[in-house]
Write a structure and sequence with these properties.
The complex is a heterotrimer.
Chain A: E1 4-15, E2 18-29, E3 33-37, H1 44-52, E4 59-64, E5 67-68, H2 74-79, E6 82-84, H3 97-103, H4 112-117, H5 119-139, H6 155-168, E7 173-177, H7 185-200, E8 204-208, H8 212-218, E9 221-226, E10 229-234, H9 236-241, H10 243-250
Parallel strand pairs in A: 3-8, 3-9, 6-7, 7-8
Antiparallel strand pairs in A: 1-2, 1-4, 4-5, 9-10
Helix pairs in contact in A: 3-5, 3-6, 5-6
Chain B: H1 2-32, H2 39-56, H3 61-90, H4 94-116, E1 130-133, E2 136-139, H5 140-162, H6 164-174, H7 176-181, H8 186-211, H9 217-221, H10 224-234, H11 239-259, H12 264-279
Antiparallel strand pairs in B: 1-2
Helix pairs in contact in B: 1-5, 1-6, 1-8, 1-10, 1-11, 2-3, 2-4, 2-8, 3-8, 5-6, 5-8, 6-8, 10-11, 10-12, 11-12
Chain C: H1 2-27, H2 36-51, H3 72-92, H4 98-118, H5 120-123, H6 143-169, H7 172-182, H8 184-188, H9 194-220, H10 233-243, H11 248-265, H12 276-297
Helix pairs in contact in C: 1-6, 1-9, 1-10, 1-11, 2-3, 2-9, 3-9, 6-9, 7-9, 10-11, 10-12
Classes of the chains: A alpha/beta, B mainly alpha, C mainly alpha.
């Protein structure tokens, strides 16, 4: 009996006449790094958007940690501990790296009354989070840039920042939408190492990726999608032998 | 009842003016993604120019009309090309562009005031005859206005559907980058669009002045509410929607002025605008473009 | 000297308005262009709460009316501003963004403006309200002394609002607001509720604008349609942009530059002191040119938005990672 932290059951969604996701079901086991592959237009991003609450499904349910999160707005999904990143860099460009990092965690100081009138109540927590942010930035190799505007980073650095920032929110699961897109070779290895290390300490991952080699290194289990439906599930080696998957990719 | 019919008649005339203005405005918005708050000021510039050319410099009536409309059209092109586009290309936050357009409009108003002074002017067209049509009593000038509106709408329709330019405009409106990749010279299309819409703006300004006994800068400014209401009701970027919106707003606003209070035409237009934005922001008619208005909050 | 004191009062009251714009447009990046609506509402509420009940003898017509002592009319004006800001925010912020939000707020401003203008018995109509009582006017009767007193009152409220804004901007709440401005979708995926934060900013900003309106009404003792019309949006926004958006000190510098230097300065130029129309026109042209120049060459303004600084010494490294 697997401990599924995230499950999608029979999720469907169309846009106009296009059936983007058709009866898609998947289950992510807690503490694993799972991959989601498929050619362009397979519906991967749409499915992830349904999971994260950016799109409502027409059919089906999404459950996280046993809780039904179908149709919840993105910010409420995030508060359950499920954080996602985007395909296109979504840093806060005119904020420094440290500021980017400090936006993520839950803080006492974000309530109106305390923010304005009771600085003492949140200032200690602020410094603790600051120290934590600095540590994360250091471990991702971004420490020297902590006061730079995030918009000035290179593509790969932005991706690292996004992952570091997501970690500040203390997620139970991270959904990474094409984390390697636009990243130069050396940084890919660094990101892979980070993901593996975080995976070992208990964080669950769902990674959408095109680079099958990366998927192979990262993921024990991989789901393959094409034309809106989930075709198959297995290890990368298994999928490489799967006829349906090969057909979808070669078409 | 006769009042009601008369008010409907007047509403049709206002709708005609609105139609010309809003088709121009909505095309500017749809094709270049700019909410040109200075539009009504360019509109009202036209009758001022016509007045000077015709009654001060004593040029021929039709020549004055053509020159004043052309002048406003050219000014619109220059306005977009040299003030708005450079900022759009830089990618500034869109509401600063709104502020710029708004400021430009107000400055234009002050320039007009500085040149022509605060007095009211009058330009007119047609004779003194009134005609009765199905119970509506319309003056010659009003009939001319309606005729101009109908002719313009037919012209626009032909332009959009039958000419290469029209197709290019629609392509740029839907997806500028894709249009450029398929060989359309977007900046040329943009300039031509602003010339076209600037012409409509000029014609609209003239017919607005024809329809009122006297005009001044505020005649234009007061028109903005009904213009925006018609454009939004019809769906931003949709010329056919703008036509429909213009008819609805023009007629309903006049009924409201009759039934409730004379100044209520503006309030009704504004309320219609707010309600449309809240409940059906894409407008009544499906637009040519798929854009949703642009910008972030 | 008396002139300088008057300038001072205008500076402080206009700064409150610009700070309101800075919070909503600058920090939150919302297109709440109709914010002068609350300037007007604040002024009217203050006026009718100090004028007392309308009677047949006075030539003014308005509804309700009370004679409350200072500072109640101002404080109640802020409350009304906050409540109405909440209502407007609930209506417009829920789904609207960008151009649509801008038009909706402008439309609401226009609707209210047109209604007030058209119904003379509501809030004085186009004639406005006058003889608005000034705070402490019975105790301080010399003109000069009163000017200084009001300067103190205006400065006091302005400093209070400035302190409030700084606290807001520099708190985690302010940081959340910025993140929503920078990338709303990303902020939402980190657990932030953009609608709620925008609403808070709108409510605060509206209360601030209302305060500015109330102070102005009490100082000038008259209030009409012009000070809160469409066109007044522009100088406040220009001040915010030129001075430095999302920076309260920038707002102060911008207010000084636009309202005071340009606004009052043009009347000193030769040939303009007798011609208010022309000087108004020149002001607008200067604002317009300055605005375009700044947006082109220095879009972040004279004093740009600051990066966050933390003053305590950095914590020692090697803290146990709490994952």
């Amino acid at each position: 009996m697997t401990d599924a932290i995230l499950s999608c059951e029979h999720v469907s969604r169309s846009f106009g006449g296009v059936r983007a996701v058709v009866d898609a079901s998947l289950e992510i086991e807690r503490g694993t790094v799972t991959g989601l592959i498929g050619p362009n237009g397979a519906g991967k991003s749409t499915l992830v958007n349904v999971i994260s609450g950016h799109i409502r499904p027409e059919d089906g349910t999404v459950r996280f940690n046993g809780q039904d999160i179908t149709g919840l707005p993105p910010y409420r999904v995030a508060r359950t501990g499920l954080i996602r990143t985007f395909q296109l860099s979504s840093e806060f460009p005119w904020m420094t790296l440290l500021e980017n990092m400090l936006v993520a965690p839950k803080q006492i100081g974000t309530s109106f009354g305390r923010a304005i009138f009771n600085r003492r109540s949140w200032i200690d927590e602020e410094y603790r989070l600051l120290a934590k942010a600095r540590e994360y930035l250091q471990s991702f190799g971004l420490g020297a840039l902590e006061n730079e505007y995030a918009g000035n980073l290179s593509g790969g650095q932005k991706r690292l920042l996004e992952i570091a920032r997501a970690l500040m929110a203390e997620p139970e699961m991270l959904v990474l939408d094409e984390p390697m897109a636009g990243v130069a070779g050396v940084l890919i290895d660094r990101i892979v190492d980070h993901i593996l290390e975080l995976g070992r300490s208990g964080l669950t991952f769902l990674v959408i990726e095109h680079d099958l080699e990366v998927v192979d290194r990262l993921c024990e289990t991989v789901y393959a999608m094409a034309q809106g439906s989930v075709l198959s599930r297995g290890t990368m080696a298994e999928l490489r032998q799967d006829e349906r998957v090969l057909e979808a990719y070669l078409d | 009842m006769t009042l009601f019919i008369a008010s409907t008649g007047f509403g049709i005339v206002v709708a005609s003016i609105l139609m010309i203005a809003s088709v121009g405005f909505t095309l500017q918005w749809g094709v270049s993604n700019v909410l040109n708050l200075a539009y009504v000021d360019f509109m009202i510039l036209t009758p001022y120019l016509d007045y000077s050319l015709n009654q001060q410099l004593h040029l021929d009536k039709w020549l004055s009309i053509v020159l004043s409309v052309a002048g406003v059209a050219l000014a619109s092109v220059a306005f977009n090309q040299y003030l708005l586009q450079p900022f759009v290309k830089r990618g500034i936050r869109f509401f600063y562009l709104l502020i710029i357009a708004f400021a430009a409009g107000t400055i234009l108003e002050y320039v007009i005031l500085a040149i022509w002074g605060p007095t009211f002017f009058n330009i007119s067209v047609g004779g003194n005859n009134t005609y009765s049509l199905a119970g509506l009593k319309l003056s010659e000038a009003q009939l001319i206005i309606i005729a101009i509106a109908v002719a313009s709408m037919i012209g626009i329709h032909l332009l959009l559907t039958r000419t290469d330019f029209g197709r290019s405009m629609r392509a740029v409106a839907i997806n500028p980058m894709l249009a450029q990749c398929s060989g359309i010279r977007t900046s040329a299309v943009l300039n031509a669009t602003w010339f076209l819409t600037g012409t409509m703006c000029g014609i609209a300004g003239l017919v607005l002045a024809f329809n009122t006994a006297t005009f001044d800068v505020n005649t234009g400014a007061a028109f903005l509410a009904e213009l925006l209401a018609a454009v939004v009701l019809g769906g931003i970027g949709s010329p056919y929607g703008a036509m429909v919106g213009a008819i609805i707003i023009g007629v309903v606003a006049e009924w409201a002025a009759l039934l409730i209070d004379p100044f209520f035409n503006v309030v009704v237009a504004l309320v219609a605008l707010v309600v449309t934005l809240l409940f059906r922001p894409e407008g009544l008619v499906r637009s040519l473009t798929s854009s949703t208005g642009g910008g972030t909050a | 000297m008396a002139y300088a004191v008057t300038l001072g009062v205008y500076f402080f009251t206009q700064l409150i308005l610009v700070l309101s714009a800075n919070l909503q447009l600058g920090l939150m990046g919302m297109a709440n262009l109709g914010f002068v609506l609350f300037l007007g509402l604040g002024a009217y509420v203050t006026a009718i709460l100090s004028l007392g009940a309308p009677n047949a003898l006075s030539l003014q017509h308005y509804f309700f009316g009370a004679s409350l002592p200072f500072p109640l009319p101002l404080l109640l004006a802020m409350v009304v501003g906050a409540v109405l800001g909440l209502i407007v925010g609930l209506i417009s912020l829920y789904r609207m963004r960008g151009h649509y939000l801008a038009i909706v707020t402008l439309a609401i401003l226009s609707i209210v403006w047109t209604v007030v203008d058209g119904f003379p018995n509501f809030l004085g109509g186009e004639n406005g309200l006058d003889s608005i009582p000034q705070p402490f006017s019975s105790s301080v009767t010399t003109y000069n002394a009163y000017q200084w007193l009001f300067l103190g009152i205006a400065a006091f409220f302005c400093i209070l609002v400035f302190w409030f804004s700084e606290r807001f901007f520099k708190s985690p709440l302010g940081r959340m607001a910025k993140s929503i401005r920078e990338n709303e979708a990303a902020a939402a995926t980190l657990g932030i509720n953009p609608f709620k934060v925008r609403l808070i900013a709108t409510v605060c900003g509206s209360a601030m604008a209302a305060l500015a309106g109330g102070l102005l009404a009490e100082y000038v003792t008259v209030w009409g349609m012009q000070p809160w019309s469409f066109t007044e949006i522009f100088p406040a926004t220009a001040a915010m942009i030129i001075g430095g958006r999302a920076n309260n000190w920038g707002a102060a510098v911008g207010t000084l530059a636009t309202f005071i230097l340009v606004g009052q300065g043009t009347s000193f130029l030769p040939g303009f002191s007798n011609n208010p129309e022309l000087s108004y026109a020149i002001q607008w042209i200067i604002y317009g040119v300055a605005l375009v120049a700044f947006l082109w060459f220095r879009p972040r303004g004279l004093i740009p938005e600051q990066k966050s600084k933390w003053r305590r010494a950095p914590a020692p490294l090697g803290l146990a990672r709490s994952r």
